[in-house]
From TrEMBL:
Domain ATP-grasp intervals: 116-311
Organism: Thiocapsa rosea
Residues spanning the signal sequence: none
Name the UniProt record assigns to this protein: Biotin carboxylase
Keywords: ATP-binding, Ligase, Nucleotide-binding
SUPFAM superfamilies: Glutathione synthetase ATP-binding domain-like
Record-level Gene Ontology MF annotations: ATP binding; ligase activity; metal ion binding
GO CC term, one of those recorded: cytosol
Keyword NAD on entry: no
Organism placement in taxonomy: Bacteria, Pseudomonadati, Pseudomonadota, Gammaproteobacteria, Chromatiales
Pfam families tied to this protein: CPSase_L_D2 (PF02786)
Length: 448
């Protein structure tokens, strides 16, 4: 019997992504209790799998403290969106349970303007820009490096981000960003036109830092004026040697500077043939759920490590070690996103059979349902499903993606397809940015 078997974990959130936490807890022999405010289990499917659940707002810390006391909860965990972090920190603090970060660490890593300042201190390469608030908006109007991007300092999931092509669009874009910002502080920075994106995933145990995974991220620009919508996260990154040489040391410096001890940290940004540009961090389980790939490839799982930490204050079991982490995957892995254009979904077909038809598909997570309205936001609101693939090489990966995307259908009430343009492939080239029809080989180093 393991040292955590039979312990009780309180999970803040029950949406489709949180199902992973319930499944991981059960795999470890841990009792799971899911809480959120949704009574409709269609909106909170994690409750259907959990050992117990409550229809309580995750922001009602007093009510959650009563659950912890009554049910003898041993630990608390959440993830996937920044909005849940504030109640998570408050609940752990008041209940005297393990929390993987301090309040100041969460603020420094989730507030985009604070993170930029932290990057400057630690020499992490960032995008040029300024931070403004309602008191100094005139500085925004003096910024002349168009096109530019404006985004709330305190939002996540690409919410509130607008592409601004000229000064005439700035006022409306600030008003839009304000909808998604409690602080009313905004970052204005240079628009990096269709550069490839990357994400680095670090695991930190007792202050020791390892790079667990590094991926390239491909986006669609079909929704004009908004942030790009994800098409694919591809592991391992073709830029891994450059990243280790140009960025990794500064990120480790940053983690040590704010004294991170036991946690998961992601770093996101852009890359071209000249340099890397870091633009934000993630201090929580990420929507990319990269632990599904690392467990398959090398037996490590950051989600299970965080569950263990929540229950014991230790990340690693006796059989686990950071030496097992290796960002140079020996297989080609990727998350492919099924995205929809604005409208009301009438039917979703194909997702229920693609795993049976393709042994390379290890996980399918459906996020939307018939009847859902997709708003034109250019955010993760457009994502219908995430499909995780483990392939033997690039060509195998390309073939599986073609088969999978040909099987998926999302239609409106008149039978019209709502699908965004998927990843483009041909016989000798692999996934590319959805903004272009010209294929770019994954081995090509000089990116357009």
């Amino acid at each position: 019997m393991s040292d955590i078997e039979g312990k009780k974990l309180l999970i803040l959130g029950g949406a489709p992504m949180w199902v992973d936490i319930v499944k991981a807890a059960h795999a470890l022999g841990v009792h799971s209790t899911v809480v959120d405010w949704h009574k409709d289990r269609r909106l909170s499917p994690a409750k259907l799998l959990a050992d117990s659940s409550y229809d309580i707002s995750i922001f009602d810390v007093d009510a959650l403290l009563e659950v912890i006391s009554k049910d003898k909860i041993d630990g608390v965990l959440t993830g996937y969106t920044d909005i849940v972090l504030e109640p998570y920190v408050a609940l752990c603090h008041r209940a005297g349970l393990w929390c993987y970060g301090t309040p100041d660490q969460f603020t420094q890593l989730t507030d985009k303007s604070r993170f930029k300042e932290l990057c400057k201190i630690c020499s992490v390469p960032i995008i040029d820009g300024i931070t403004v608030d309602c008191e100094n908006l005139e500085e925004a109007y003096s910024y002349s490096d168009y096109p530019l991007v404006i985004k709330p300092s305190d939002s996540c999931g690409a919410r509130g981000i607008r592409l601004v092509k000229n000064r005439n669009e700035l006022s409306q874009s600030i008003d839009y960003a304000a909808i998604y910002s409690k602080s009313k502080r905004y970052i204005i920075e240079q628009f990096l036109d269709h550069k490839m994106e990357f994400m680095a995933c670090y695991t930190i145990c007792d202050g020791e830092i390892v790079l667990s995974a590094l991926c390239d991220r491909f986006k669609s620009y079909e929704i004009p004026g908004f942030s790009a919508v994800p098409l694919c996260q591809y592991f391992p990154s073709i830029h891994i040697d450059r990243y280790l040489s140009e960025v990794d040391e500064s990120v480790r410096r940053l983690a040590n500077y704010i004294e991170l001890k036991n946690c998961y940290l992601s770093i996101q940004g852009f890359v071209d043939s000249d340099r890397f540009y870091v633009n934000e961090a993630g201090f929580r389980l990420g929507g990319g759920q990269f632990y599904n790939f690392t467990e398959y490839v090398n037996g490590t799982n950051s989600l299970k490590r965080l569950i263990r930490y929540a229950l014991t204050g230790r990340m690693l079991s006796r059989d686990d070690s950071l030496t097992f982490d290796n960002s140079r995957f020996d297989k080609v892995c990727g998350t492919v996103f099924v995205n929809a254009m604005p409208g009301v979904i009438h039917a979703i077909d194909g997702l229920d059979v693609i795993a049976e038809e393709n042994p390379e598909v290890i996980h399918v997570m459906q996020q939307a349902q018939p009847g859902d309205r997709i708003e034109s936001t250019g955010s993760l609101n457009h994502v219908i499903a995430r499909i995780k693939i483990v392939a033997v090489d690039e060509r195998n990966f390309a073939e599986v993606v073609r088969r999978v995307m040909a099987r998926c259908r999302v239609t409106d009430s008149e039978g019209n397809s709502m699908l965004m343009k998927p990843l483009a492939f041909n016989a000798d080239n692999y996934p590319l940015d959805g903004s272009s029809n010209e294929p770019i080989s994954f081995s090509e180093k000089e990116l357009l």
